[in-house]
Amino acid sequence: xxxxxxxxxxxxxxxxxxxxxxxxxxxxxxxxxxxxxxxxxxxxxxxxxxxxxxxxxxxxxxxxxxxxxxxxxxxxxxxxxxxxxxxxxxxxxxxxxxxxxxxxxxxxxxxxxxxxxxxxxxxxxxxxxxxxxxxxxxxxxxxxxxxxxxxxxx
Length: 154
What we know:
By secondary structure, this protein is mostly helical. The protein has helices at about 1-5, 15-40, 60-65, 70-80, 85, 90-110, 110-154.
């Protein structure tokens, strides 16, 4: 009997429409996250983020690239940096998106009871900064109040 009530409470049966709709609603945020990551191409930008730092004076860039024997030196002169280091932000952005996609997929596949626990922990973690800022505000206003009392008695 206790297992049937479980985490959902005694007022709901496992096959009730309200529980099914709540389960679907809990699974929507990970689906939206996966959709948004795929819409943005997993962090891989289609636009080139390279821009010429300083153009070569009096030299046609196309001819300079065509006649170049050292492409590494030409790329460094045109874009002002190591070509290998310029790809690092793209790789890190892709890996971050891949991690978020995998995390969203794992959250989506959690059983209903574990999904409720996950959201409970997520709400508790989200309340930490709010609690900290409220506590800091309370301490600051208390110090101002104490300083006002000290000034009136002196």
